Amino acid sequence: MQNEYDPDLIVTHANKHFVQRQLINRGKNPVQVAIMSTSELANAYHETGAEVQSDGDLQRITSEIFVKILETVNAKGFSVDMTRIIATQELRDEIATGTAARDLVVKLLEELAPRRVEIASPQQTIRLDGPLHYITETVIRIAAMNHPIMLVGPAGCGKTTIGEHVAQALNFPFFITSTINDTHELTGFIDGHGNYHTTPFRQAYEFGGVWVADEIDAWDAAALLSANSALANGYATFPDRKEPILRSSNFRMVATANTFGNGADRVYIGRNELDAATLDRFATIDVDYDLNLERIFGRGNQRWLDHVWRIRKIVNEKKIRHVVSSRAIIMGAAALKAGLSWEQVEEIYLLKGMSESDRGKLD
Known about the structure:
Rossmann fold; 5-stranded parallel sheet; single chain; alpha/beta; 46% helix
């Protein structure tokens, strides 16, 4: 297939890589090109038409590198998605032959290449690949030592996902319990017919697994005391058994919280104080938003990403009672791509109910 613009070209799965190369050659953002659907590729191809292309050598190098990226991603069984690039040494060697193209793609790979976590133990070596939060490796290493963990950070920063990655890395089942208002939600209960109803905590505690105790600083105090006792004693009692159940050696607990156990603050007003005995059980880790992950979540929409970051900075500096989480980036970028207007997306996913007085502080 020739490189000249073809006004009659119909974009299909068979020729989409050619069209992607053409758009890259014409100066389109590689990230945006990689996530375009077939119809979006067709529109972009015909909109640009027979535009004057860049220098021939740079054009050739960029196209060849982009093909390499696509081949590398496809060889790993992933869809053509720039957020899943595997930055191999072979690919970096190829890039080293270029000049401006090398700088462009190396920067792209460094920003979007997934982290790799490798944990060695006497039993096995565990490796986890993918877009991982910056604190994930630390959490996995602590969990591997069988220390209870409490992740403290703002809403939507990835705490629960980190817990899932711990389970994947340790090859343990994953369990999660949301906010608990009564002890039976932790230990289970026997109904009127004499049947016992188990819980995620019971399953993980008895048989092994990573148990995420979500939003622990909003739990009922009696339930938290019961969990604390189970951690301290190495055994726990449940309604269906007279004798206590010993804690599995493969039980791991990862608690999440929005506060450090000091009670409510200006944003998280429904949080309780945690007693010193409970806090002392945990390795406590401060978790914040991962900006590199948020670059990936932005789907190449730098304008939206910068806007969300700016609003978050003002909210924090002026102590506005509002949460600007990674979800605003993820859902907002998807909504803009789906055709919603900027004003709609900002209102629905970013400002969502912010008072007029607080909005006035954003200027």
